[in-house]
Specification:
This is Fructose-bisphosphate aldolase. This protein has 394 residues and is α/β, with parallel strands linked by helices.
Length: 394
């Protein structure tokens, strides 16, 4: 189905960055032209300079984001895979392993936390946000309230969480968070319908504006799910429509582009497509989409892995950094950074050091990929295993 008709509106929408200038709107007969002058103010918040600085810090060379914002239920599934119960003590132990890894800040610039983690401390009483700051890693926070069915759509979802977001964001800022994440999804097998695309774009834009008003750099994430057997060309078509809609509504909500980060899906074939695409093909299609849709004012593109194997996600990122880009092209990975770590740890205290070393291996690999210098030589078989789960929930 065709997505919303407003994709073309960007061409006629004058940027909110115009200050002390105007454009003319003319009406009337050919013999008499009446001119109306319209001024458009620049969007400004008390945090404008800080937002830009935070975004640039996260989008720094050779570094990316560690996403550990899984809900307690999803974290419980990860723990169950190694035989651990889903308790706060076990969740804390695992997140402590990740967030206290020595030298992590060399490769990681930001960490997205779940609300529980933002307020937790190590077993020694040190706040997790302070552990991150000591490594020059910016603390972030997941602020959405999850996906629910979208009435009137083709079995699609919408993301809830705008109610109370301003007050929650203000509290998260006080606790030390400096950026936020809101994940919504678009399903290609389900259409996507124009309604679902518009709802995703509008929700992201409202969230982004509210976040910026409260000092948090918003990560804008309309995840185009890997589910389906469609070719890569279909993914490109949908991605262009989705991002066109997203930026139209970001502009309508006067969001400061220099103070946001994007977390897109890579443009790949559907996970069930008969032919796999090479990293070079994925890079070509993904960069084509970005160049057509993303203004160079945006400082960073932090890709999600979306169920790719650890090595696939790194190879694809590396391929996208073989030539200069207008933005910092990097990573915001969860499973593609954590899979080997979790299996190395197995919930045993004696394995913590080895698990932290495996995290550094993956973080360094993606750091090199951000710089365009990664080689898959010597990677383990475990790191090459795909992690796609049909109908995955976060």
């Amino acid at each position: 189905m065709a997505a919303c008709s407003s994709f073309a509106k960007l061409n006629s929408f004058s940027s909110p960055w115009i200050s002390n200038n105007s454009f003319s709107s003319r009406s009337g007969s050919s013999s008499l032209l009446a001119t109306r002058r319209v001024s458009l103010p620049i969007r400004a918040t008390a945090y404008s300079d800080e937002l830009v600085k935070t975004a640039k810090t996260i989008a720094s060379p050779g570094r990316g984001i560690l996403a550990i914002d899984e809900s307690n239920a999803t974290c419980g599934k990860r723990l169950a895979s190694i035989g651990l119960d889903n308790t706060e003590v076990n969740r804390q132990a695992y997140r402590q392993l990740l967030l206290t890894t020595p030298g992590l800040g060399e490769y990681i610039s930001g960490a997205i936390l779940f609300e529980e983690t933002l307020y937790q401390s190590t077993t020694d009483g040190k706040k997790f946000v302070d552990c991150l700051r000591d490594e020059n890693i910016v603390p972030g926070i997941k602020v959405d309230k999850g996906l629910v069915p979208l009435p009137g759509s083709n079995n699609e979802s919408w993301c809830q969480g705008l109610d109370g977001l301003a007050s929650r964001s203000a509290e998260y800022y006080k606790q030390g968070a400096r950026f936020a994440k809101w994940r919504t999804v678009v399903s290609i097998p389900c259409g996507p319908s124009a309604l679902a695309v518009k709802e995703a774009a509008w929700g992201l834009a409202r969230y982004a504006a509210i976040s910026q008003d409260n000092g948090l750099v918003p990560i804008v994430e309309p995840e185009i799910l890997l589910d389906g057997d469609h070719p890569i060309e279909r993914t490109l078509e949908v991605a262009e429509k989705v991002w066109s809609e997203v930026f139209f509504y970001l502009a309508q909500n006067n969001v400061i582009f220099e103070g946001i980060l994007l977390k897109p899906s890579m443009v790949t074939p559907g996970a069930e497509h008969k032919e796999k695409a090479s990293p070079e093909t994925i890079a070509k299609h993904t960069l084509t989409m970005l160049r057509r849709r993303v203004p160079p004012a945006v400082p960073g593109i932090m890709f999600l892995s979306g169920g790719q194997s650890e090595v696939e996600a790194t190879l694809n990122l590396n391929a996208m950094n073989q030539s200069p880009n207008p933005w910092h092209v990097s990573f915001s990975y969860a499973r593609a950074l954590q899979n080997t770590v979790l299996k190395t740890w197995q919930g045993r205290p004696e394995n913590v050091e080895a698990a932290q070393k495996s995290l550094l291996v993956r973080a360094k690999a993606n750091s090199l990929a951000q710089l365009g210098r990664y080689s898959a030589e010597g990677e383990s078989e475990e790191a090459k295993k795909g992690m796609f789960v049909k109908g995955y929930t976060y």
